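Let us work through a complete example step by step.
Step 1: write down the sequence.
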Amino acid sequence: MKRIREYGIKIGDMAPGPLNKITDVEGVLVGHETLDTEHYKTGVTVILPCRDNPFLTKLTAAAVVLNGFGKSQGLVQIEELGTLETPIALTNTLNVGKVHDALVDLMIEECAREGAEVTSVNPVVGECNDSVLNRIQDRPVGTEEVKRAVKAAEKDFQEGAVGAGCGTVCFGLKGGIGSASRSFEIGEETYTLGVLVQSNFGSTENLIIDGRPVGKEIVSLTEPAILDRGSIMVIVATDLPVSDRQLKRILKRAGVGLSRTGSFLGHGSGDIVIGFTTANRIPEETEKELLTLRVLKESSLETAFQAAAEATEEAVLNSLAMAETVTGYKGNVKHSLTDLWLSKL
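Step 2: predict the structure and record it as tokens.
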């Protein structure tokens, strides 16, 4: 399978990073564990925000709920404290609790190795409902699957129907995991912003690709999704020196990228954005009463707004382009964008 740029479709005006993935942000890694059987099309995708222990030196973080039809965990504390202290895990709706437990175990073990005691921790877990293709009630994703995803984490990770995207459906087509990034200058410094999505939203007729109403062209070629529902998780990573409030402003622009693909944030869709910056780390234990942080002035965020919109749009399209046609639970079939449209370009 090929990514969307390999078909000559260039999204936006800004330059991507070297891999055009969220891992272009230094220190970020992504790992998958995929369960792909006759009954199961599901899994877990883990985003490691840094190479060291995020619990001991937390990352500045924020979250935006564009539409709240979702079952994510950990967002309340991010909203209150503006920090991230664990990896971010994505899975299916009914597996959120089990993946939460796995992250708790992971952080207790990691901190114990470093001589730190964990009495409270805030795991962050996002989800999409993959029950069209997956026997979701069995909840097969747990501690071992999360551990394997963490162990498999790498910079140049797979996209498409893998990990948490194995069973997702986007615009009535096979969705999955997609990613993109943007590199840009503010002042005399170069920064990176990357996005990873777990795509599971959208009505077929509304699909737009680089301004072209592709959904209207292909709606008769497949069993279309009529309603915009099902959810999308958007994870944003950057190395910009920003506060959690400024980061939240940036995350809101992911909604622009979603709308450019044809989403109108439908009633039944949980559209959630979680983001962090690798700049401005916050130590867990310090005797200092005051911390010194670097932050951009507000008007300098304009470029980052555009980067978030462009990278989100391209990440969604990559999730579609990289996913193959899948036959899932109960014989349900979801065709790939490549089979229906991209291969004909």
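Step 3: interpret the result. Residues 302-321 form the longest helix (20 residues).
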